Amino acid sequence: MAGIYIHIPFCKQACYYCDFHFSTSLKKKDELLAALKKELQLRKNEFEDTTVETIYFGGGTPSLLSQNELEEILDSVYDNYSIVNNAEITLEANPDDLSKSKILDLSKSAVNRLSIGVQSFFDADLKLMNRAHSAVEAELSLELARDYFNNISIDLIYGIPGASNEQWTQNIEKALSFKVPHISSYALTVEPKTALASFIEKGLVENVDDEKAHDQFHLLKAKLEDEGFVHYELSNFGKEGYFSQNNSAYWQGKPYLGIGPSAHSFNGIQRGWNVRNNTKYIKTLQQNQLPIEQETLTTTDRYNEYIMTGLRTIWGVSLDKIKNDFGTIYLDYLFEQAQVFINEHLLYIDDSHLRVTKKGQFLSDGIASQLFKLNLS
Hints:
Elements: E1 2-8, H1 29-42, E2 51-59, H2 67-80, E3 82-93, H3 100-107, E4 113-119, H4 123-129, H5 135-145, E5 152-158, H6 165-177, E6 182-187, H7 195-201, H8 210-226, E7 230-233, E8 236-238, H9 245-251, E9 256-259, E10 264-266, E11 270-274, H10 278-286, E12 292-296, H11 299-311, E13 317-318, H12 319-326, H13 328-343, E14 347-350, E15 353-356, H14 364-371
């Protein structure tokens, strides 16, 4: 089983914190959508013997696409790939795009999961991040969406400068009031060369407070788990039966195709990435060539990636997999490096799996980096 990720690199306006690839100009939208369909066709042999179980429209802002544009891309996927029945098909959407007519159209399409980028239910937060929607639009979009979709995910951001723990708790409670079965939540990160980084450097916005973000993460975790959500990955909480199949496949090392400018792909041995430029992407595909670079992962690369993704999830790192896929030298190294974190009650071993404790969850990426192997081929 495998997945297909389709990157739609267009947005109405630039969020101050975002470093994803996108353009606020739609002038080349038609050419780019044609290029997406061409890439899907040219790469079908990569999944010749593989069945696709998830399709994910990310961005950018995929909800900017018209119904016809979305259906044409999906038709190209189904024409060129073997898709399971009832495949999970996710569309990332901004609240300001989700009018009643838009949601009704989507409900009649193959899309069966919405990931709605709310980020906050407070206008001050949305203004600070330069989001295109208002708090009222966020609430209205969810009221409308839940009438037509069962599988809805909300994105929320914590650690926003100036946002108190009380305000964050209100954000969580508001999200829960819509009875959605999945919430993804991320700490606000100051990425280099973003507008947010510039504002902080100039003193126009206060810097992110890591201690406050840590506190808000634990508030989120406690509140959602009390409401029956499973904290199945560092940034993801879902009711049983509503975990993101697409993202879970990434974390479990399943192959996926990344279609579109800047999209990444993985086949278990090689990782590839498309050019991060709309014009170059279009021109290359117009010449029936693929705008992709690839690298073959070493054993150490694959071990490190498995450690990073495994520790972020409830499934943890399988010690049997480490031994069978990478060898006893890696297993011995892992035990050696992990011991200090086990002693500090940040990691524990259960049923032949290495997992993070509740105390260690917020630190899982940093812990993983200390378990990486750096000197083997």
